[in-house]
Amino acid sequence: MEEEKIRIEKDSIGEKAVPQEAYYGIHALRAKENFSVCSEMPHRELIWAMAMVKKACAWANWKLDILDEQKAKAIIEACSELAEGNLDSHIIVPALSGGAGTSFNMNINEVIANKALEVLGFEKARYEVINPIEDVNMNQSTNDVFPTAVKVAVVRLLRELSQEVAVLQGELQKKEKEFSKVLKIGRTEMQDAVPVTVGQEFSAWAEALARDWWRINKAEERVRQVNLGGTAVGSGLNCPKAYIEIAIEKLRELTRLPVAKAENLFESTQNTDTFSEVSGFLKTLAVDLIKIASDLRFLSSGPLGGIGEIMLPPVQVGSSIMPGKVNPVIPEMVTQIGIKVIASDMAVSYACSLGNLELNPFLPLIAHELIGSLKTLKETCKVFGERCINGITVDIDRCRKLLDRSCGIITAFSPYLGYETCAEIYKEAVKTGKKVEDILVEKGLFTKEQIEKITSIEELTTPGFAGIKYLKDHLT
User: Fold this and answer.
1) Residue 294 annotated as catalytic
2) In this prediction, what percent of the chain has a pLDDT beyond 90?
3) Domain covering 144-395 assigned CATH 1.20.200.10 in the classification
4) Would you call 388 exposed, middle or buried from its count of C-beta atoms within 10 A (0-12, 13-18, 19+)?
5) CATH class of the domain at 405-474
């Protein structure tokens, strides 16, 4: 077996053997060992965003004649390779690390430097030619580039999530229209209430998602303000003033996202409340998705021993012992994702509250949980719409049967008969199993024609007294 070739790298602590073919260096290797308790790696979106930030910074340094053109072009090419995912296997620092993201930043710097050296025809670790800190990290601090990268990744994912929420809302609206004439019994506190249409139930879910879409879009306004150029604490120490505008303008161009310089770099460096705000919006979306998924599971229960008013599309066999059983697996998956997002929001909120003075050292956790929630919610909305909502059908006969068996329709007659009289008729219907309408006819309180007027879909499911325009003289 061929022995692995190594190179020796040095830092202020000492020396360490690094695999010769590795683009990472001593700083990343130490971090990997120190933070080995975490098996999760940084999200691809964060690596992409960091590559874009480094590329913009190299461009700014080049344009200010601070960074040699040949070095700058090599670094920029290396950043492009990293952004495209070609060097991901060399990002070895776990997602959760100490140092407010310093280890991740050093890992990125080393990978870019060694790739840039390769571009220029040098062996890896020839740091006297291109240095990870002096050249790749020029005019930067972890404390400004890492938060900036997190915000770039978050804004990009917010936009992608917004699109998926809009599509899911559209699927619900299609069903709202499709089922607008299907009357069924409404339910409050799991008990029979007054009639609604199946379409109206879908309209309520669609409206909730419309608010989620609005929140997600509004969240971008504050997240897009970055502290790039603030360096360690927001003062911009060791960073030319002209560099800030050039770097941010280039970052906008590279990412096609509306990032802008924060008005107060000190504030933007130390506070993370904008991440907590976004996380809160994601939690609210998760709450709405769980509510919708739970309602769908309830309404599709059975199909014969439960409610069974709607049918979810069968996507897989449901049991290893019960032949023919099909479970509501997509709503169940959506519910579990929602619970996970709610839990992540707790982690983000708590981490955001623990910032100290000029910096929040727990940004790696904030970034990982927030980006993870954005990614999973985006995919969840897509799957929910495509593999569940889109294929929902309604059992019209079942809806009618349950409506006829229910006594909730008596509420439509209370303006004509009074609350107490209707309550007695309700109890009689429950006890005898007779339809409310039949009892009303038997008692001579209404004719069949009058009952048909009162119980039409339009009259029962719109504001006002049902049938009032036909039966004004019957009002109590």
Assistant:
1) no
2) 93
3) yes
4) buried
5) mainly alpha
Lowest mean pLDDT among 309-313, 422-426, 471-475: 471-475
- Predicted pLDDT at 134: 97
**Residues 6 or more apart whose Cβ sits within 8 Å of residue 247:** 56, 57, 59, 60, 228, 229
| Angle (CA) 51 54 57, round 5° | 150
Angle between the N-to-C axes of helices 363-387 and 142-178, in degrees from 0 to 180, rounded to the nearest 10:
20
Q: DSSP of 49-93, one letter per residue?
A: HHHHHHHHHHHHHHHTTSS-HHHHHHHHHHHHHHHTTTTGGG--S
Q: Which band of pLDDT confidence, cut at 50, 70 and 90, is reported for residue 222?
A: confident
Six token digits for residue 385: 């719409």
User: Which pair of tokens denotes residue 274?
Assistant: 């904008």
Confidence of residue 3 (pLDDT cuts 50, 70, 90): confident
Residue 436 has a pLDDT of 94
Would the CA dihedral through 460, 463, 465, 467 be positive or negative?
Answer: negative
Cβ atoms of 95 and 368 within 8 Å: the answer is yes
Is 6-138 in CATH node 1.10.3720.10? no
Given 89, 319, 373, 406, which residue is catalytic?
Answer: 319
